[in-house]
Amino acid sequence: MAEVKKTARGGGPPQGPEAGGWTRFVTVRPRLTLLVALVLTALAVLAGSGVADRMGSGGWEDPAAESTYATGVLEHRFPGSQPNLLLLVDTGTGGVDAPAAAAEARRLAERLDAEPGVEGVGSYWSTGSPALRSEDGRKAVIAARIGGEEKAAAAVLDRIAPSYRGTHGPVEVSLGGGLAVRHEMQQTIEEDLLRAELIALPLTLVLLVMVFGSAVAALLPLGVGIVAILGANAVLRGITEFTDVSVFAQNLTTALGLGLAIDYALFIVRRHREELATGADPRTAVRTTLRTAGRTVLFSALTVAASLSAMLVFPQYFLRSFAYAGIAVVLLAAVAALALLPAALVLLGDRVNALDLRRLLRRGRAPRPDAPGRGAEGAGWARAAALVMRRAPVFAVLTTAGLVLLGLPFLGVKFGTADDRQLPTTASSRIVQDELRHGFPGNPGGGLTVLAEGPATPAQYTAYRDRIAALDGVARAEGPVTAGPGHAFFTVVPEGEGVGAGAQRTVAELRAASAPFDTSVTGQAAVLVDSKDALAERLPWAAGIIVVVTLLLVFLLTGSVLVPVQAVFLNALSLTAMFGAVVWVFQDGHLAGLLGFTPTGDIETTLPVLMFCVAFGLSMDYGVFLLSRIKEEYDATGDHEHSIRFGLSRTGGLITAAAVILAVVMVAIGTSRVTNTKMLGLGVALAVLMDATVVRGLLVPSVMKLTGRLTWWAPGPLRRFHDRFGISESDHPVAPAAPAPDGVQTPGERREMTALRS
Q1: Which of 419, 481, 711, 731 is the most buried (most CB within 10 A)?
Q2: Exposed, middle or buried, 495 (CB in 10 Å: 0-12/13-18/19+)?
Q3: In a 3-state reduction of DSSP, which class is residue 306?
Q4: Distance, CA of 435 to CA of 422 (rounded, Å)
Q5: pLDDT at 120 over 90
Q6: What confidence tier does 357 reach under pLDDT thresholds 50, 70, 90?
Q7: Which of residues 256 and 664 earns the better pLDDT score?
Q8: Nearest to residue 26, comparing CAs of 338, 272, 350, 265?
Q9: Contacts of 85 (CB under 8 A, 6+ apart)
Q10: 3 state DSSP class of 744
């Protein structure tokens, strides 16, 4: 095996498996490969233009839930009962009943009612409802509904908003309501995403230059990331033709597009430079790189895509959108890394090391290609691994306990729904909603609506209203409002918080209450209950997909029964700090002033699921890189502890650099003014850094040391299955060698000592 490896890394023809068709095409026709990629990228730019305008800002509801059904019927039968546009009319010191102010407000309401696409207009001046008048008597509300699906309604709002917002004679008008909040949230996310890209791209380039030294090599990963992002936008644009896609998914496209493309490019370029450092010519180096590191990149992409695909089992299009975006950008990043990058490396040849910007720091030493594991960096990781393995029980127990302790705040998590407080306090629709929340009587937006369907007499309606009004936790019940025979609705105001635990109990009691007609309950608390039920029902399926696919893929990589189990356990453990921080910071409000958000006392229901799938996939990405090098060396030497030290020496710096770069991208996303996006970016950044440092540097070597050579055991049938279908970075996997006698160095130990001395 040693001879085969040595020949493959020399300047002669590669030994072992012949270059496959793809490898041969990329290395023989690199210019054609780049030309095709350039044309496809240009087409992707055209196809993906305007994708954000076709995305939605909702998607948290289960489309098959009772609350969704009730909302749809109410929108059709009673459009006034489900207003999504609120005009807050400020009459100043004159008061809402001043003749001039009242006349102007009525004119505005009549004009709004005549707008195409607007229906169900009502106001304080037409109903006299005290709920539509502020407690100080200076403001009142005109409520309306813009019908149609989300994008069409947003278009109507864009058209009419400028003519209503602002000063109208004696009154000042501001726009709020659910539609205005979602629309402003979408615009804010688009602006924040552009700013995040402007922050992340130059910082990423600087970090890549620091990692590679060569400016030429640093530009390659960045180019792969940009191609992946543009391609994913085109894919999302196509998906919007068939289904709803959340605008939040664009944040994941940018983060994963840059992060994973850079990960894959780092891995391939570093391996390519290793081959060049051994004297291989550029074409041979690329072929060897694709046969080894290329397999790991493809394998890693499939693992990450499998983790993200678990979100497809959920009915909420908010979660499904992240699966669409994530799978597309991960696979495109892998394709770009395995096609564009090798073609560029062939054309560049030794010039991949050109423009070495670190030469000024070498103080006169001759520049040399970056060869991980051969210099101080690799030696440092090898020594750290050796230290950890000498005290493996201590590191394993203390690290596990520390991670569990960091995750304890998540035991107190409270789930809620996203509302206007996701926006900054300066957002116009947020200002309106704050005024309604604090300046108007009752519980705006927190009420429940009970839809009644079926024939009923007035006496039956009255008896039912009295029955639900007497329920514990109900402040008052009003109605019925009827629309012909067979359809009516009741308004129920729960005590306390509109989406709190009490309101959720009230939903259950309303649904259990007997009635002589069919009833359906909707409202914010009902939507939250249904969303939690849908997530709980499908969560085992999503977890099962992730676990089963991870176990299978890691087995195909390692041929071990124990390593896949370790990978699932350690990856899940690496996420504890993220979940603990989410509750401590974003639910409980610590650091709210520093980070610039409004704590609401709960976490949006779908966010933990999303963050788990994304962070677990990224953790597997780093795990695959490390395990592939450990397994490659173990196949070559049969020396378990040496293989762990060697794997960390060759990938420790790479994984750390990749994690830091991805964390920079995620933190740039986390500068968003929308709280959920901030939580996603900062939370995943924390998870990535914890995984790349604490888990890969401490837990993996200590746990693998404790399991010893049993780590690589598999029963005979599974061994034969892996021999036939498994994946390895090694060109020629061999049976593990027997341990060397005491006092005799294995070939791997001799090679490692030589590397450390150099």
Answers
A1: 711
A2: middle
A3: helix
A4: 16
A5: no
A6: low
A7: 664
A8: 338
A9: 118, 143, 144, 145, 146, 157, 175, 177, 179, 180
A10: coil
Q: In this structure, what token pair is assigned to residue 661? A: 């770069």
Q: Which residues contact 259 (CB under 8 A, 6 or more apart)?
A: 225, 618, 658, 661, 662, 665, 666
Taken in order 207, 212, 218, 220, is the CA torsion positive or negative? negative
What was the pLDDT predicted at 92? 87
Q: What angle do CA 485, 486, 490 make, to 5 degrees?
A: 110
- Say what the pLDDT of residue 736 is: 43
SS3 591: coil
Helix (H) / strand (E) containing 538: helix 524-558
Packing angle, helices 700-707 and 640-670, rounded to 10: 150
The position carrying tokens 């709020």 is 176
Looking at residue 78, its pLDDT comes to: 87
Per DSSP, 699 falls in state I
β-pairing, 603-604 vs 415-416, is: parallel
Contact 753, 745 (CB under 8 A): yes
pLDDT confidence bin for 108, thresholds 50/70/90: very high
Comparing CA positions, the residue from 415, 421, 419 lying closest to residue 606 is 415
pTM of the model: 0.83
The burial class, CB within 10 Å (0-12 / 13-18 / 19+), for 590 is middle
CA end-to-end span of the chain? 24
DSSP H helical segments within 691-746, as ranges? 700-707, 716-725
Phi, psi of 356 (to 5 degrees): -75, 105
Amino acid at 432: V
